[in-house]
């Protein structure tokens, strides 16, 4: 049985951390799961975030899982997050999508919804 983790909470929210902890547990158990970052959840893919040394960095924690990290392209662009391709297309000066994250369309979410037995939204 596969699980979809739909992450809509900003990275500063405790809910975003709960999503990561569930993903980490599923990954360690070898369970099949997918993640999709949407709405304010896309902010985790911003490589320009800064955190003090005494705080864990959610972006880095997701990157350490070494799983596919799809991010809604429209929600990301709306929040000032873009990859090289979209920076060029929209004539922006640079990209700031964190390494390991991937901008995708909502079709990816639809596919994940169809193929998942459970959906957990954070």
From TrEMBL:
It is found in: Cytoplasm. One of its GO terms (biological process) is tRNA wobble position uridine thiolation. InterPro entries: DsrEFH-like, Sulphur_relay_DsrE/F-like, Sulphur_relay_TusD/DsrE. SUPFAM superfamilies: DsrEFH-like. Its main location: cytoplasm. GO terms for cellular component: sulfurtransferase complex. GO terms for molecular function: sulfur carrier activity; sulfurtransferase activity. This is Sulfurtransferase complex subunit TusD. Pfam families: DsrE. Belongs to the DsrE/TusD family. Keywords: Cytoplasm, Transferase. It comes from Acinetobacter guerrae. It comes from the Bacteria.
